């Protein structure tokens, strides 16, 4: 699972934000996203969340 190291990285990088789908129960998630949510990472990176069953 690609989310297996979330808790470890949160200990290594205090304050890091971990995004995960609201329906997915992602361990270590700090920010839940829904289909269609828009997330800005800095000034140049924008992410659009898509739910893929």
From TrEMBL:
This is Metallo-beta-lactamase domain-containing protein. Signal peptide: none annotated. It comes from the Eukaryota. GO terms for molecular function: hydroxyacylglutathione hydrolase activity. It comes from Nymphaea colorata. Gene3D superfamilies: Ribonuclease Z/Hydroxyacylglutathione hydrolase-like. InterPro entries: RibonucZ/Hydroxyglut_hydro (IPR036866).
